[in-house]
């Protein structure tokens, strides 16, 4: 999930992902140079969830953020989510 300055929407998005009925999921969130509190929100969310990874990127855009996330996933299926 690429994230860039998504503070107003990020918590509801993350809670929606966490509340799904399938317990076997992972989230790879790429903070793409956010200038708001998005990174802090992501790190707080990931702090007690081993299935959530937060990767910081330099702000090079959504395509680079997605490519970076794809390099880290471990599952059989990929679903792209936007914050």
Low-confidence segments: none
C-alpha Rg (nearest Å): 12 Å
Which shape, going by the Cα principal axes? Answer: globular
Percentage of helical residues? 25-40%
| Number of distinct beta strands | 3
Strand order of the largest sheet: 1-2-3
- How much of the sequence is in beta strands? 15-25%
Q: What is the terminal separation in angstroms? A: 7 Å
- Main β-sheet description: 3 strands, parallel
Mean pLDDT: 93
**DSSP helix count?**
3
Q: Structural class of the secondary elements?
A: alpha/beta
Order of helices and strands: EHEHEH
SSE blueprint and pairings:
Layout (H helix, E strand, L loop, with lengths): L1 E2 L3 H12 L8 E6 L5 H9 L5 E6 L4 H9 L13
Parallel strand pairs: 1-2, 2-3
Helix pairs in contact: 1-2
Any overview of this molecule?
The protein is α/β, with parallel strands linked by helices and 83 residues long. It is built from three helices and three strands. It has helices at 7-18, 38-46, 62-70, and strands at residues 2-3, 27-32, 52-57. The protein has a three-stranded parallel beta sheet. Strand 1, helix 1 (7-18) and strand 2 form a beta-alpha-beta unit. Helix 1 runs parallel beside helix 2. The longest helix has 12 residues, at 7-18. The protein is globular. The protein starts with a strand and ends in a 13-residue tail after the last helix. The relative contact order is 0.28. The model has no long low-confidence stretch (mean pLDDT 93).
């Amino acid at each position: 999930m690429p994230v860039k300055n998504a503070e107003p929407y990020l918590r509801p998005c993350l809670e929606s992902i966490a509340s799904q009925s399938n317990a076997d999921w992972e989230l790879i969130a790429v903070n793409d140079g956010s200038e708001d509190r998005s990174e802090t929100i992501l790190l707080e969310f990931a702090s007690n969830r081993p299935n959530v990874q937060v990767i910081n990127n330099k702000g090079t855009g959504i395509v680079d953020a997605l490519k970076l996330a794809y390099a880290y996933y471990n599952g059989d299926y990929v679903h792209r989510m936007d914050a």
